[in-house]
Prior knowledge:
By secondary structure, the protein is an alpha/beta fold. It folds into three domains: 4-103, Nucleotidyltransferase, domain 5 (2-Layer Sandwich), CATH 3.30.420; 118-204; 234-270 and 281-345, no CATH class. It has helices at residues 37-45, 61-68, 91-103, 118-146, 163-167, 173-204, 208-213, 221-231, 240-247, 284-298, 303-311, 316-337, and strands spanning 4-11, 15-21, 27-34, 50-56, 74-78, 251-254, 259-262, 265-268, 274-278.
Amino acid sequence: xxxxxxxxxxxxxxxxxxxxxxxxxxxVAEAIIETKAQTILDFLAGQRxxxxxxxxxxxxAAWLYDLIRPHVAQVVVCNLRRNGVPENKxxxxxxxxxxxxxxxNGLKAVYHGEHSTQAVKELxxxxxxIVSDSIRVKNRLKALFRGRGISCSGTSVYSSKDRExxxxxxxxxxxxxxxSRLWKELDLLTELREEAEKDLLAEARKHxxxxxxxxxxxxxxxxxxxILAFTITPHRFRTNKQFWNxxxxxxxxxxxxxxxxxxxxxxxxxKQPLVRGLNRNYNRALKEAFKGxxxxxxxxxxxxxxxxxxxxxxxxSLALLTFARKISSITLALWKKGERYDKDKxxxxxxx
Length: 352
């Protein structure tokens, strides 16, 4: 008889605690093993029957999902906070609690579909790295000309057809050689960027989430792929504020002397918090994606709202921040619900 087993895994960087239940809920095996691919696969190979595995979402979740999925009947990556934690909080009890919830069909999967996001994340990181390297080379190239009093505003200095014109303005042979090598480096990076973008878009198309994201104003195929790759799943973020922090769109404020003594009574001061800009600890790729989406929406579908805000006295930079936060909030809500963008359901607000 083919026995069904439910395996809960409490995964840590070095070690993984495992609890195995049978169909009646009885613990039939427990183990503490290294969090290494072969060790995990060896443990699963030693378990007879139909295996159903669950573990919590975390840093290693995507890697573990891809590793285990071909070897078991089911893998459920979950967010345990939705289901509550066991009374006796410990690694072994956590693993057993996960297995019990899986046995009772009490877990909601975080990852959906056949493919995890690991591949698209790797390709997005490759693409982002190449983009960053390209920007560095461009900055070095302009610095070379500016350092010699040669004005080089705009993008003409990067163009292959104008390079002879720029070289003729340099009278030093060594500097000319340096500029030539920088252009060659830029050409190679441009070629690599095109390859990386093509691979990223091809992989992102395999995910249903990108079809949802692409319906949102300002988000095209490339931005959808970047958002998917670095967000991984919207269920990581319980509120919009948490997502704004991660995307670098959260406004920081500072206040001192919150309380004051008035006629012998302690009262809260009426001082307004000082705005100190946006938070500094954030995912740069996501911030660029949402800022770019806001700029596109401001000259596209939301042009009327943008003009109204600016004409009403709102600085254009603040209006774009409002749009970026609005787009990120819409992204989080629609992605969680699995719904596409519908402008008729959107209640627009100017609030930041």
